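Narrative of activities, Objective 1.

The group set out to show that a structural description can be obtained from nothing but a protein's sequence at a throughput compatible with the screening campaign. Below is one input-output pair from the validation batch, recorded exactly as produced.
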Amino acid sequence: VSIGVPVMISEFIIGRSTQRNPYSAFRLLAPGKPWFLIGLMGVLAAFFILSFYTTVAGWTLEYFYQSVTGNLAGKGHDELTGMFSAFLDDPFRPYLWFVIFMGLTGLIIISGVKNGIERYTKVLMPLLFILLMLLVVRSVTLKGAGEGLKFLFRPDFSKITPKVILEALGQGFFSLSIGMGTLITYGSYIRKKDNLTRIASLVVFSDTLIAIVAGVAIFPAVFALGGSAASGEGLMFVVLPEVLQKLPFGNIFSLLFFILLAVAALTSTISVLEVIVAFLVEEKNMQRRKATIIATVSVSVLGLLTVASLGSLKGFTILGKNIFGILEYLTANIMLPLGGLFIVIFTGWFLSRSILKSEMTNNGEIKTRYLPVYLFLVRYLAPVAIACVFLYSLGILRFW
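Output recorded for this entry:
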């Protein structure tokens, strides 16, 4: 919270004070200086992230389809592992689902902020929460669910190491979309009368709450039904389908779960694509429709290569990483921490104090005691913490 909230406020301040995309915002606030490169890197990070994130998002549609058709029913761990591997190697289906998911994202973005993003988000977010709560109720009422709750909530302080803290900070950056320009872009849409501190605090609180609730929906069921505490794609597409099929009406809960994942992924891809579209609209003077089509097609070209890197091109690697791995490492370990670091340095040390005060107080209309605390955090604590994450992610900073 002490890192996420101030960094988020910094991005909101940059966006709302300029009403511009990340690239143009830095050019406006620091004309003739190289700060615009941070904004440009944010747009590029959004491009890269969308290409591999949508790859995984497409998998949720495949497993939703498999749930509907009943193809997951009765399959054990080994069968589901083989099924997932066969899907990745399939010459058609992973590409189809990627294109469909990118198409859905583009269709929502093309309608604009009010008629597209706001309209669909007002439907998708409540739907996401309702589906999640249905799974929570079923999960915690299973016999043996208590073990999963203990795993999730019983603290093991021996596991809290500098390495774990830095990895948690890195995950927080990705989860909160910090450092890629998304928050600057959406900050430019925030009304002048809205309280930035309150919005940032609410976003961080909501993100954390949803993550905890998702854990309650997943781990009690996993432990109750004899699954393992796996993570990543192994948990989502092997362990959980196996666990869900063991439930009464397992196909229904499997269907609900993969709808939930798809909805959650769609809300994320919408926000990331908007960064690229806003850049094209403002910097290249494109109509929104044209900008959305160009952005969607461009991301899809790289994205289809990313899909192939897990299938037909999986033998092609650079420094031991396929295209998917390269893009994931480049964004999560370099671009996002570096972007976040320079954003807090810029707002803490270089941005006009009058702009900071004006945005934090809405031109004096609201009183805030948070400004001195905010300045301390963005000048000292946040840069040091983010720098540690950055150095750790590069392998320069190590803990034994």
